[in-house]
């Protein structure tokens, strides 16, 4: 079972990815320039960078929601054109249907894949149990707390057993305690399914605690500055505990020195614009 | 420090049940006061009207009189009108308003959803819709009467035109307001464009559409009445128009009252529908009002 799922994870190969947009004024704007990296099947890869460095743009290319201006994106060895198969997405704002109940929200994924309704509902109930939301099936999203909505989102993203999980600052809007709990739960679920993960965050601690590899992105135009392997052993257990690990502190410090220049540069630029 | 705590606790000896009882009492008092206000306000308005017209400070020949309105109402119900019983006329007007409402809502929803989703169409048609919206559409009633005669159809059409724009703008806005993350999410999950519409766009726009129905229904009534005033064989609007010719403001007010009661009932039904369809919604949400 486990090996079958592991085999189900897909690699992500990005080569020379460039994405240009037209600004509302009609001028071209390069969001991402010449980005190349590879995520091995089953790897948890985090991308860290200052705001506005094109992290989300990169993610949209992998999902197939957008086309690159130049370069290629391959998922599982096949070039992405159109929406990529076997991908799940989690956003910072919870992309839940406010008019569907918790159960309805989680059932959407499987039913869109043509799973019979009855089986989908049973599966959704099982996933809600896994994320600790049994008994909340009939609530509407607005009746839940932020952390609970995130869990619904997590169940909805994982129920399809994706080959790739794309996460765009999924816990960015949560308070610190809830965030730590959600990170721990995400790790536990990920270790069961082992999809490849591309996890965007601006929180370096989060990246180091969760990922196998951390990529640092520079801003405007976004490109990969450096890559760090995180050799903390798995399973990692409680995220709060890892933060006190000597190796964690060492890695965190090492990456921060690299990241600091970037953040300061990006900050100076925005401050310059504002002035 | 401890002394202050002790004195304050001694000053308020209230036990838990007492506090609840006091809170309940305050609430009841407030609610009673609101109801007293609600009853007194119309008493002052209608009583003042009656008083002023009886004293002759305001001419009842022009402005009517509450007691006269009541007599007209009774007369309308008991003796009917020159155009048949009041119920027949009321039914004609209701029918016109309802058909117009359904037609206008249907067209508004379809066109609104379509333009909301197809950006190209929206940009081509957009300016012309603004132009059409700035036309005083009620005048179209004259043209409809001339073109389609004194029957039901021109009334339905005028009501539908008024309703259309309100519903259309709300449906259009509703589609535009759709959470793009949600769209991206279902797309990634493998939804076809039709499924995106079914799962995201339409339910999302539904909030806006249903919110607009309150205003829209009022306009359906206005459309039907105005078209009847312009020319009809039956209907409340015709009674109003005839009363106007006879210098009979009381009957005009009586007809107004009848239509107001009906609109209130319809409003109640729409609110029920809204509660049912939008059970998922957190309370409070406003609508765009395009008049």
Q: Care to give the gist of this entry?
A:
With 275 residues, chain A is α/β, with parallel strands linked by helices. Chain A has helices at 2-8, 55-63, 102-112, 117-130, 146-158, 176-193, 204-210, 239-242, 246-274, and strands spanning 12-22, 28-39, 44-48, 70-75, 78-79, 87-90, 164-168, 196-201, 213-218, 223-229.
Describe the protein:
Chain A has a 6-stranded mixed sheet with strand order 6-7-8-3-9-10, with helices on both faces. The N terminus of chain A is likely disordered. With 275 residues, chain A is an alpha/beta fold. In chain A, helix 3 packs across helix 4. The termini of chain A are far apart. Chain A contains 9 helices and 10 strands. In chain B, helix 7 crosses helix 8, helix 8 packs antiparallel against helix 10 and helix 10 packs parallel to helix 11. With 291 residues, chain B is mainly alpha-helical. At the A-B interface, strand 6 and helix 3 of A face helix 9 and helix 10 of B.
What are the segments of chain A in which pLDDT stays under 50 over at least 5 consecutive residues? Answer: 1-7
Order of helices and strands of chain B: HHHHHHHHHHHH
The parts of chain B where pLDDT drops under 50 for at least 5 residues are: 1-10, 285-291
- Which chains have the largest interface? A-B, 27 and 22 residues
What is the share of helical residues of chain B? over 70%
Summarize the main sheet of chain B: none
Would you count the extended β strands of chain A for me? 10
Q: Major sheet of chain A, described briefly?
A: 6 strands, mixed
Overall spatial form of chain B: flat
Q: Structural class of the secondary elements of chain A? A: alpha/beta
- The count of strands of chain B amounts to 0
SS summary, helix count of chain A: 9
